[in-house]
UniProtKB/TrEMBL annotation:
<feature type="transmembrane region" description="Helical">
    <location>
        <begin position="138"/>
        <end position="161"/>
    </location>
</feature>
<dbReference type="InterPro" id="IPR010656">
    <property type="entry name" value="DctM"/>
</dbReference>
<keyword id="KW-0997">Cell inner membrane</keyword>
<keyword id="KW-1003">Cell membrane</keyword>
<dbReference type="GO" id="GO:0005886">
    <property type="term" value="C:plasma membrane"/>
</dbReference>
<keyword id="KW-1133">Transmembrane helix</keyword>
<comment type="function">
    <text>Part of the tripartite ATP-independent periplasmic (TRAP) transport system.</text>
</comment>
<feature type="transmembrane region" description="Helical">
    <location>
        <begin position="396"/>
        <end position="421"/>
    </location>
</feature>
<feature type="transmembrane region" description="Helical">
    <location>
        <begin position="355"/>
        <end position="376"/>
    </location>
</feature>
<protein>
    <recommendedName>
        <fullName>TRAP transporter large permease protein</fullName>
    </recommendedName>
</protein>
<feature type="transmembrane region" description="Helical">
    <location>
        <begin position="214"/>
        <end position="235"/>
    </location>
</feature>
<dbReference type="InterPro" id="IPR004681">
    <property type="entry name" value="TRAP_DctM"/>
</dbReference>
<feature type="transmembrane region" description="Helical">
    <location>
        <begin position="241"/>
        <end position="260"/>
    </location>
</feature>
<dbReference type="GO" id="GO:0022857">
    <property type="term" value="F:transmembrane transporter activity"/>
</dbReference>
<keyword id="KW-0812">Transmembrane</keyword>
<feature type="domain" description="TRAP C4-dicarboxylate transport system permease DctM subunit">
    <location>
        <begin position="7"/>
        <end position="417"/>
    </location>
</feature>
<feature type="transmembrane region" description="Helical">
    <location>
        <begin position="51"/>
        <end position="68"/>
    </location>
</feature>
Length: 427
């Protein structure tokens, strides 16, 4: 009865269009009140949900992403990628994928990267004759890899909720799978472009000079080296790395490129504060939902039921894959982690799965959900900017989803894809 009330009320509110954070908080509060656990515990759960030092990383990395976006780094990365890839059929689409991966080392929010890359790339791709649904599909899929490529908000949240997986290890573990996912997306992107002759008229366009483009983009690319290098050598903590990223972005935008003025600082801070407030509100109210689940012992019977299905370790893994990808189409990564990690971690520990590897798998599954219709958050952003409907993307996005599934399967079969680099870096 209690379980039905908790999950049923949450599902009903989602169907009624209630914001996810509010639905989580209200369903958790209603269940706590019905079970006579004391509603006074709700404010405490809200506070303790966000009173965690590592969460300071989130607003700083969001602000860093906003600064790099406004400073014109994306345009310089596009020019550099064009100098490498050139022009011709599918070239602009491949450039969009590469730029999204590069931007993922600056801001770890999939929807934010989707908006930034689509805003830069969509106009030129539309002029080159690329279908709008194709543009939206490719950029949404490419931006989904950014929750794996550090710094990543999803990996930070996972590390906060699972202390056995430190954020430095999670950042290192996400690099190879995230890069592999991005490179894998290039295959169907190019195949579709060549099959339908997309961008063929651009083959006569000249390439930008390579060395000049590299020089212009090098300072932006150095941000990832600065963040990961500082973490690797213990120069600063992940939270300090986020502050360093903000300072470095301001240095580029205000001193080097001079594209950011003092009057722009206020609007950038407001934008970053709004995005961060949304993320932290979801975390705070989802904590009420999670507290209700753990206090009422809802988690253990479900976890035991899954383990006792007698479908084996890989059968359970396949079940979790399907479940998370379906849930990921409706919920963002933060909500998914907070709701499901109390259920999933006992299952992982039962099978003695490495929790760093398991975190990468969960994040990769959520990444697939971010561009899987009908409620894909990345796809919603790119469709709005490109000017098309989600329904029109089906014929294009299914190939990209299939490719990401193959990447997910590779990480399942070869855990070293996620674990080799953290071990090599000493995390």
């Amino acid at each position: 009865m209690i379980t039905a009330l908790l999950f049923g009320s949450f599902a009903v509110m989602l169907l009624l269009g209630v914001p996810i954070a509010v639905a989580l908080g209200l369903s958790g509060t209603a269940t706590i009140a019905f079970a006579h656990l004391g509603v006074i515990s709700v404010p405490t759960s809200v506070y303790t949900g966000i009173a965690k030092y590592p969460l300071l990383t989130i607003p700083m990395f969001v602000l860093a992403g906003t600064i790099f976006d406004r400073s014109g780094v994306a345009q310089k990365l596009v020019r550099f990628a064009t100098a490498i890839i050139g022009q011709g059929r599918g070239a602009l689409a491949v450039i969009a994928v590469v730029v999204a991966m590069m931007m993922g080392g600056i801001s770890g929010s999939g929807p934010a990267i989707a908006a930034a890359v689509c805003g830069v790339m969509a106009p030129s791709m539309i002029r080159a004759g690329y279908p709008r649904p194709y543009i939206a599909s490719v950029i949404a899929a490419a931006a989904a890899t950014d929750i794996l490529i550090p710094p990543s908000v999803a990996l930070i949240i996972y590390s906060v909720l699972v202390p056995q997986a430190p954020v430095t290890a999670m950042f290192a573990a996400g690099i190879i799978p995230g890069t592999l996912a991005g490179l894998a997306l290039i295959v169907p992107t190019l195949w579709l472009a060549r099959r339908y002759n997309l961008g063929g008229d651009q083959s006569h366009e000249p390439r930008p000079p390579f060395w000049r483009s590299l020089w212009d983009a090098s300072l932006g690319l150095f941000a990832k080296v600065l963040i990961l290098g500082g973490l690797r050598f213990g120069i600063f903590t992940p939270t300090e790395a986020a502050v360093i990223a903000v300072a470095y972005g301001l240095l580029l935008g205000m001193v080097v490129y001079r594209t950011v003025k003092f009057r722009d600082l206020y609007s950038m801070m407001v934008e970053a504060a709004e995005i961060s407030a949304i993320i932290l509100t979801v975390i705070a109210l989802a904590s009420v939902f999670g507290w209700a689940m753990s206090t009422l012992s809802i988690i253990d019977p479900i976890a035991n039921g899954i383990v006792n299905l007698e479908i084996g370790e890989y059968g359970v893994m396949a079940l979790l894959m399907v479940m998370l990808i379906v849930i990921g189409t409706f919920l963002d990564g933060v909500s998914t982690f907070i709701i499901l990690l109390p259920l999933l971690i006992p299952i992982a520990m039962n099978y003695h799965w490495d929790l760093v590897w398991f975190g990468v798998l969960l994040t990769l599954k959520i990444a697939i959900g971010q561009f899987t219709p009908p409620m894909a958050v990345n796809l919603m952003v790119t469709c709005r900017i490109a000017g098309c409907t989600i329904e029109s993307t089906f014929r294009w996005v299914l190939w990209l989803i299939f490719t990401m599934f193959l990447t997910l399967a590779a990480v399942v079969v070869w855990p070293e894809l996620a674990l080799w680099l953290p071990r090599r870096m000493g995390f």
